[in-house]
Amino acid sequence: MKTINVGLIGFGTIGTGVARVLRDNSQLISRRLGAELVLKKIADLDIVTDRGITLPAGMLTTDVNEVLDNPDIDMVIELIGGYEPAKTFITRALKAGKHVVTANKALLAKHGDELFQVAAKAGVDLYYEASVGGGIPIIKVMRESLTANRITAISGILNGTCNYILTQMTDKGSAYDDVLAEAQKLGYAEADPTFDVEGIDTAHKLAILAAMAFGTPINFDSVYVEGIADIQPVDIEFAREFGYKIKLLAIAKEGDGGIEARVHPTMIPEHHMLAKIDGVFNAVYINADMLGPSLYYGQGAGMLPTASAVVADLVDIARNMLGDSHHRLPFLAYQTPNHQQTSYQPIDAISCNYYLRFTARDQPGVLSKISGILGDANISIASVIQKGRNDAGGTVAIVMQTHRARERDLRYALNQIDALDIIDGQTVVIRMETDL
């Protein structure tokens, strides 16, 4: 049986998972592949810490050159994350004629097109299933299963940390800071959770999916991003009264004005399938013209689910090697010469429904002043909830759900409303998606 040798750069949680999958399921993989995948060398700065797995003597090294310059290694896995030195390592591997598998969504979102060009010139493959959705095979679906479809929209819950936090806040009524601390204690959130809770991690993934869906170069800088740190239990409770749940949603749509690509807390109808995705799970909801709507659900992170996706890429590339068919699949679902330089819409050009929570003085005429300013900005009110006086200062929560409105018009109106002496603090705004 033919042997295909693999080198691994990065022996953290996911790297350890890859080693376990290749060891524990080696016979199964060989039966399906018709060849043997052999983990030849692992490079990491720390080769002392016990990862709970026994490896052959000499497999571990602190010298990455033993992977990149080894002529016996056919494929390289990059799992160190970040921009550098990951970009340099991947580039070196590609130029050396080695196929590469990576889970590095941040690097691909910023430099993916450049790396794909390097891979094309070198005649090797660069696969990245684990970069989006962990173990969910969404990249394969986009590149292969939906080839005959025009994708019109993608909506996704793509960060398990945020989804866990919002689920706990919804189910228990807990405050954001308390749930974040709990998530860190349980290992669901990093010590520095910035990339997760501010939506940046989700935006990296959305940039990749949008490029695949609409046949454009990757354009991370055009993705609008808001995080979840300002979501309050009171807003979750009002959402429930309206029949909605709040999720950190990644949204990409193709319209006449260009592509919408945005990540922000979103109210979605509680009966929608995405509203039922709770805890650390991820899901991607795709609208396609021939297939219709479809949902892809599973574990979006974790050692073994992510390692499963990495090894699946190894097998796909190995099959290409055995069939002498490199570049059988385009890097981003469309052949590169057919990519279109489509414009992305700024956030103030989008239209949707809105949830608005005003903290106003409890006195006559307040509601009419607010509704008058909104009306002058062509914003129609769908429903209103007004709670009774709840503190000695005489302020009251006024909550509105609008009909579809343009973001630019809403911001213009809110600038005027928030300047009124009857309004205490800044209006809370959460976008609502009623037609996912």
* Proportion of beta-strand residues: 25-35%
Radius of gyration: 24 Å
Gap from first CA to last CA: 49 Å
Count of helical stretches: 14
CATH superfamily of the largest domain: NAD(P)-binding Rossmann-like Domain
Output mean pLDDT: 94
CATH class of the largest domain: Alpha Beta
How much helix, percentage-wise, in residues?
A: 25-40%
The unreliable regions are: none
Number of domains: 3
Q: Write down the overall geometry.
A: elongated
Describe this structure in words.
By secondary structure, the chain is α/β, with parallel strands linked by helices. The protein has 3 domains: 170 residues, 3-Layer(aba) Sandwich (Rossmann fold), CATH 3.40.50.720; 162 residues, Dihydrodipicolinate Reductase, domain 2 (2-Layer Sandwich); 84 residues, 2-Layer Sandwich (Alpha-Beta Plaits). The chain is built from 14 helices and 17 strands. The strands form 2 sheets. Strands 7, 8, 9, 10, 11, 12, 13, 14, 15, 16 and 17 form an 11-stranded mixed β-sheet that branches. The mean pLDDT is 94.
Write the layout of secondary structure elements.
Layout: E1 2-9, H1 13-24, H2 26-33, E2 35-43, E3 60-61, H3 65-68, E4 75-78, H4 86-95, E5 99-102, H5 105-122, E6 126-127, H6 138-145, E7 151-157, H7 160-172, H8 176-186, H9 194-197, H10 200-214, E8 224-225, H11 233-242, E9 244-255, E10 258-269, E11 281-288, E12 292-299, H12 303-322, E13 351-361, H13 366-376, E14 381-386, E15 395-402, E16 405-406, H14 407-418, E17 428-432
Parallel strand pairs: 1-2, 1-4, 2-3, 4-5, 5-6, 8-10, 10-17
Antiparallel strand pairs: 7-9, 7-11, 9-10, 11-12, 13-15, 13-16, 13-17, 14-15
